[in-house]
Task: structure prediction
Amino acid sequence: MKHFLSIESLAGPEIGALVDEGLRLKARRGPDPGFCPLAAQIWAMLFTKSSTRTRVSFEVGIRELGGQVMFLSGQDLQLDRGEPIRDTARVLGRMLDGAIIRTFGQDEVEEFALHSGIPTINALTDEEHPCQILADLLTIRERLGGWEGRVLAFFGDGDCNMARSWMWASARLGFELRIAAPKGFQPPRAFLERVGGNIACTEEAMDAAAGADVLYTDVWVSMGKEEEGADRIAAMEPFQLNGELVERAAAGALVMHCLPAYRGKEISGELLELHASTIFDQAENRLHAQKAVLVSLAAGGPDGGRRT
Result:
């Protein structure tokens, strides 16, 4: 694997192998001077979107694997002043061993990977959030033993980056996915046809929850959508993840949220606290899943992950 850009670009066995590696790294976490796959490497994090979990988990992960890391916000880069991403990539590729990018356009991450010549990780775009999906799959493996034969129901904005990432995961791994969303927030038919897989869309939240093994939600107002906030909240109110939906789900169903959570909107405060153990396992598992990606890229990137 040379880059980690999307769930779409991975095969099912590759996803499973990364989850397995993340579990191994979680089990062996701690001081281990004999295991430093990023030793003498310097990675940069280019973030034009703010974050808590993504930044902390990557910075900790790189350091635990023996590497060094620098953080560059939008104000630290020339991109906002008109420099093409390919020029930034050509410069940084001569100085760094890898890059982690959190931005708006998926095309920016892919263009950086093309022109930089160094391993590149998508830490979130408007199109996909592959690091979060990997951590969530790791959590499902821990809690339920796997995703084979399972049903995951997603509630809220059915065309956001998390929903799209789950659709690709469903197609690649073969589990059933149900998207419960208002009519105006359903994934486009052309996208569903491109993805394939066992995916059903509905405007009835209760139908989506019936017998599901995992109930999943995300914020209703993503970064960059603030001007639509009032309309989004009004439209998605019937799709709140709450106790009534859990009662419709399979016994022992997981309640998951990728955070940050807005209690009383996409999830009830009571339900979040009842399932906090699972939800904050998800947050911790960002560290372990992303370390698995870093280890894989260090082993299989251009020149073994080293800059030239």
